[in-house]
Amino acid sequence: MKFYDKNKKQFVEFGDSFIEQYAKAYYYPENGKIDQPLIKRLSRCSQYSEREIDSLLESGIKNEEDVIHILAWKIGKIAHKTCSEKKPFSYSSDWADLENYDKWACHSSTIRLRKNQFPIKEIAEYVLSNLNHWEEDIEQNTWFCVLEDFNNTKREKGWHGLGTVYCITLLYFISKGKYPIFDQFADKALDVISQNKEAFPNADDKKYEPIPSDLPTKDEKKMGEFKERYKRYCKKIETLKSQLSDRYRDPQNRDLDRALWVYGHIKCAEDVR
Predict the structure, then answer these.
(1) What pTM value is reported for the model?
(2) 3-class SS of residue 257
(3) 117 pairs with which residues across the strands?
(4) Which superkingdom heads the taxonomic lineage of this protein's source (predicted)?
(5) How many structural domains compose the chain?
């Protein structure tokens, strides 16, 4: 498997050098510095907000605002270019009211997400009220019960916008990294690296099969397929981690996630510079 840096220096094999190169490309440079991104047209992230996200992963969810930050981060509502040390979570203009969550929550409960009103306050309250028994489920490795609870509740309450990927994201933080976050770009990168392929077979979105936005609870076969797919995804991550040094094997170290996210945005080898 060939990996290159922006100077077209080849990495001989997957390892720490891959993580160091591609995880670094995940971030905007600090202090307004200008650099040449490793990947063309890559939307990058603030180091300030990422530090807070790492802290949330380590400490676990403590309050409603933690849930708000996690969902805004995963959904893409963090304005990374305007984040700072004093304001690590700067929200996009359509979600800016959530920056003062306590004030917003006094008179609002939903926020616009695409064509729907996203019940973010109710979701945050729901997560807080169920944390204890979900932590027990995770301790017993019955992780799927957490996703089923989310799925059943959103159907009962008519929640729109809380897809399976966002539920897995919350599972990731509730489990403090035990169960990996899911991302389609990381998934594509895992497919290439784990099979030692030179090209991206899933680079074309028409060929890539996303995970279902709703769990297929009424179809036993599809349910089994979903479970197996997520288990394979987790296994691939663990296999790659076994090839890395100890610091990258920690469940709360997100550098492999970041590197896979960046590498997964590459459509072909020519996109690397």
Answers:
(1) 0.90
(2) helix
(3) 112
(4) Bacteria
(5) 2
